[in-house]
Amino acid sequence: MAVPIRIPDAPAPPRTDEAMRAAVRESLEQARRRTLALTDCLGADELGAQHSPLMSPLVWDLAHVGNQEEIWLVRTAGGEAALRPDLDSLYDAFQQPRAERPELPLLTPPQARRYIAAVRERALDVLLKAPLGPDQDPLLANGFVFGMIAQHEQQHDETMLATHQLRRGPAVLHAPRPEPAPADAADLPSEAWIPGGPFTMGTDDEPWALDNERPAHRVEVPGFWLDTVPLSNRAFQEFMADGGYQDPRWWSPEGWAHRVEAGLHAPLFWQRGAGPEATEGDWLRRRFGVLEPVPPDEPVLHVCWYEADAYARWAGRRLPTEAEWEKAARHDPATGRSRRYPWGDQDPTPLLADLGQRHLQPAPAGAYPDGASPYGVRQLIGGVWEWTASDFAPYPGFAAFPYKEYSEVFFGPNYKVLRGGAFSVAEVACRSTFRNWDYPIRRQIFAGFRTARDPRPGEGR
Q1: Of 9, 263, 315, 350, which is least surrounded by CB within 10 A?
Q2: What is residue 459's predicted lDDT score, i.e. its pLDDT?
């Protein structure tokens, strides 16, 4: 049971006004560099094409991030006149379904680039004079609206990266492969005990936390066991080899119906065949235009909630609840305090988490020992989004801010919560309180999972 209560959680680092503006500007510019990198690598035809009915044409996303920036930073925060009010309905995600966006009179790539550059120039002028102190209007306090827009653009960058994965054609994105897992990864215990008791879930103090992460509230979580690392491809292939996709015993009725209708038999982008480094019959995967053997030690990726749930049932386990996941990621048993991240309160670094599209695949299971939680659980931040058992619902005392369409309209049993972020997620849009959600059938997202279980009768801890 969750009870609303105002509990201080991990404090955000204090910033001077000058440092705050510099941090805001860097967050905005980092997002823009990524947006341009994801679009400048393709020609106009491919930018305007719809590579999947689930996704927008990349050129729509390109102009959409600028339109949102104009609405919130130029007009709302700055109180300035609109640059292109005629674009508002064209790039409104609720008015324009994704499947219909290719037929809209969209800006061409050159027009979209000029538009977002003009908006950014005006937004940075607003940033120079906007009051960002903690006692300002909530929209401006601690630079919230600027952080919201930086996160929004990075979230669309992740969506555009998913579009690149769905795209057919030669590879245009390149990045180094992750480092191998440390030597101790093979010797890690398979699961970690998370003791029962209360912890503080959500936040009141993270300055750029979004509305669904608030407010902080006390939650009682019984003790449970949690996988030490995300589930690997090797482990998932054991489920496949045992006929897991063909056995309705492991699937919920809804999951089985979807498996049959969609013809699911392996994670998305997997296929049988021979490749440059594979023998006939090995599992291969297509990754951003490259066909390669499935890496056995990498976390499984591109599975829907129903597949994750079926694996957990087959293994005699279950998916963790959202509260269980957050307790494992944030609770410090030594102090009873909820941290900002599993490793503590400092911002993510390349030594702590697999974030920021530094690679185009997750690091091996067991990587990032310095980012482990106090319970010894690794890779709770970065790598792959992790499906949880929970429906997307408001916290007690939730208040929509600054608009209902960000979270409130999605609350309910149709969406399942994902936690932790993935290699595709930027640091600014990922923290231990961050909540993602999607339909349980979705597989194009960069999602995997880890499993949990209740203690067995008589099992002492």
Answers
A1: 263
A2: 78
Residue 1, helix vs strand vs coil: coil
pTM: 0.94
Give the count of alpha carbons within 13 A of 368, CB side only.
Answer: 29
CA-CA distance, 329 to 179, in Å (whole number)?
23
> What pLDDT does 276 receive?
54
Q: Which two tokens stand for residue 11?
A: 């404090």
List of residues 6+ apart from 248 with CB closer than 8 A: 256
What is the chain's percent helix, strand, coil content, to nearest 5?
A: 35, 15, 50
Is the pLDDT confidence value at 115 over 50? yes
pLDDT, tens digit, 9 for 90 and up, residues 243-255: 999 999 999 999 9
Contacts of 457 (CB under 8 A, 6+ apart): none
SS3 of 17-51: the string is HHHHHHHHHHHHHHHHHHHHHHHHCCCHHHHHCCC
Residues in contact with 339: Cβ distance below 8 Å, sequence separation at least 6, in sequence order? 10, 330, 331, 332, 345, 432
What CATH class is the domain 17-166?
A: mainly alpha
Q: Measured between alpha carbons, how far is residue 144 from residues 7, 138, 175, 401, 432 in Å?
A: 21, 7, 32, 11, 18
pLDDT for 66 equals: 98
Residue 42: name the closest of 176, 177, 160, 175 by CA: 160
User: Do the Cβ atoms of 428 and 151 come closer than 8 Å?
Assistant: yes
Average pLDDT over residues 288-292: 97
Round to whole Å and give the CA distance between 319 and 423: 21
CA dihedral of 329, 331, 332, 336, whole degrees rounded to 10: 170
Please choose, from the candidates 59, 24, 20, 23, the residue with its C-alpha nearest in 3D space to the C-alpha of residue 39: 59
Angstrom distances, CA of residue 124 to CA of 50, 120, 129, 348: 32, 6, 9, 26
Radius of gyration of the chain (CA): 22
Answer whether 219's CB lies under 8 Å from 197's CB.
no
pLDDT in tens, 166-190: 999 999 999 999 999 999 999 999 9
Q: Which amino acid is at 435?
A: R
pLDDT of residue 135: 87
Q: In this structure, are strands 447-448 and 385-392 parallel, antiparallel, or unpaired?
A: parallel
Domain spans of the chain? 17-166, 177-233+304-453, 269-294
Q: What is the pLDDT of residue 274?
A: 62
Q: Are 349 and 165 in contact (CB under 8 A)?
A: no
CATH tag, 177-233+304-453: 3.90.1580.10
What are 448's strand-pairing partners?
Answer: 386
